Amino acid sequence: MTLHRKYGSDERIIIHCETVTKVAKILADAMLKEGKEVDVKAVLAGAMLHDIGRSRVHSVRHGLEGANIVEGEGVEMKVVEIVRKHVGAGISREEARALQLPDLDYIPATLEEMIVCFSDKMVDADRVRPFEAEVHRFTVKGHDVSRLVALKRRLQQELGEDPEKVIFDKVKETQ
Predict the structure, then answer these.
(1) Do the beta carbons of residue 11 and residue 27 sit within 8 Å?
(2) pTM across the whole model
């Protein structure tokens, strides 16, 4: 929260990041219960900071800007990578070049990166929503829906069940 305040993040962005953090914690805890090794602290920090780059820019570059901010603040590289790779369902090296981003691979690869990226896709503003709503948004915007579906599938393989169901079951428990 200190970094969000320092860099002037809008209150809506902070609330969104808090909601994504709650969703990411649900998934990280479920992974731990399945015996998966997951750095929960990195997941929570990455989820809370994933949109800090929006304090500078509201484009596809916000992931890169956010990564630069948190790296400059001395945040652990694992968290820097989570912030950098959360945009869309990831951005390939070729897409990055076309978007005039640094020539890097922005596709979530670690369990922590995938958890935060997926959690972000499950949250619209401060509301958890069905995965199909994000599929629809990706389709309308012309984004790579297959990469989004693959992200969910990868998490499902790790978790042994549908991550969307895990999230909604837990959300229902807390209501």
Answers:
(1) no
(2) 0.96
